[in-house]
Protein: Histone H2B
Amino acid sequence: MAPVVAPQAVPSKTTTTAKASGKRAGGKKGGVKGEKGKRKAKRRETYSTYIYKVLKQVHPDTGISSKAMNIMNSFVADIFERIANEASKLAQYNKRSTITSREIQTSVRLLLPGELAKHAVSEGTKAVTKYTSNK
Structure:
């Protein structure tokens, strides 16, 4: 086995670069002029507001803890991801490049058990009908 030799640094032809001076190229992210070192917090998209609205429709006098909200958020995101993956597979099997409401409906029927699937399909159909009538 040949001995490992550390690579040598090649001197730069430019005088001062963003890396050499220790500054980031492109400046700081977000913030107001004059604020040094503060960065804009990364936005997280959640379903919290929608979960809360549905909870109030079903049980107006019931609240929800932040821990329970996080669990519900994870649950909704997981179910949506499963439905999207299944719909994607269905579109590929049928040599289609577009996921339509039909693929979503079939995915729901495959993923959710019995009565829950029937209820979800009827609610989805109702939502699509309402959307198309308001267009």
